Here is the input.
Amino acid sequence: MSNLPVHYRYDAFGNKDGSATVKLSKWIAIHETPCGYYVVPDWMYCGAPSRPERYGKSAKWVSKTSRKRRCYPDKVQAFESFKIRKERHIERLQRDLRVMQSALDQASNYAAGEVPPEPRQVWFGFNGPEDVI
Here is the structure.
């Protein structure tokens, strides 16, 4: 085994019953650069450090110093990153839900078979022939 560090990442997977399972995955560093590491999932690791090209697109580059990374050299940092990712995921989903609820509310203002008029398109301040001097 090489002296390159093992990295960790937590992910959540949905179950059929609506619950979630949180899993820890290990990422093995296969190559070091001055600024980071190339890592691969542990199930793909062949047992010796090698060039990233050997693993194709499966090898991911991870910074040594960045706050935001794919995986982290310790489990505490990986779990903190997981919590932040899931909080942001929830924020995006809540925003999408508000937008879809607003669209549905607007659609309920029309009778059956009635469609809303087409909106005017505005491109860079030009609204059509009436704006031409």
